[in-house]
Amino acid sequence: MYSLAVIPGDGVGKEVMKEALKVIDAMNERESIAFDYDIFDWNSDYYLAYGRMMPEDGLEILKNYDAILFGAIGDSRVPDQVSIWELIMPIRKTFKQYVNIRPVKLLDGLAGPLKSDRNIDFVILRENTEGEYSDVGGTMFTGENRELAVQNNIMTKQGITQISEYAFNYARSHDFQKVTNATKSNAIIHVMKFWDTVVEEVAEKHPDIDYEKYYIDALAAYFVQRPESFDVVVASNLFGDILSDLGSAIVGGLGMAPSGNINPEKEFPSMFEPVHGSAPDIAGKGIANPLAQIWSVALMLDHLGRKDLHDQLVAAMESLLQEKQTLTPDIGGAATTEEVGSALIAKLYE
Ligand code: NAI
Ligand code: MG
Question: Where does the Isopropylmalate dehydrogenase-like domain lie (predicted)?
Answer without folding.
Answer: 3-344
